[in-house]
Hints:
Layout lengths: L1 H30 L5 H15 L7 H5 L6 H10 L4 H8 E3 L5 E3 L7 E2 L4 E2 L7 H5 L12 H7 L4 H13 L12
Antiparallel strand pairs: 1-2, 3-4
Helix pairs in contact: 1-8, 2-8, 4-5
Amino acid sequence: MKDMSKRLAELPKLAEEAKKESKKYFANLKRRTPKNLDVVIQELHDAEFKKTDCLACGNCCKTTSPIFTEKDIERISKHLKMKVVDFESQYLERDSDDFMVLKSAPCTFFDDSDNSCFIYDVRPKACSEYPHTNRKKFVQITELTLHNTEICPAAYNIVEALKKKLPLRSNKKVRRS
Length: 177
């Protein structure tokens, strides 16, 4: 756990240092998307999560709120034996993008004694898919992924591995002498 604490303390600085390069990389990736991108990103995601234990981290739960869909709200309300309207008024609010999110961070359902989740089996879809690095059409979520590299050490590692695995060369004209 101590190694993870150190890693989490370093992550914002590492992500910030890599941000400019990553933005440029993703812009090039959008212009010239390799046919095998989704396969490669899935392989990198799987390899990273073989060695990453989210319970050793929990940073996403400590710092951000997932978006709660209507289905999420209905499922969690039922699990908590609450009326939807009561669940929403107690735990959720609309953000500036008109999404339903938690009123506070860390997550209300997060247990910081062991980084577990009280509603894990019925957690929001956004939580179960986080950090979204195994999504099909990955090229469509590069902005989200870039943001997640600041929060999730695994997302950061996956992006850095992707840049090595699929290096993109720019179309700079080379002067030949």
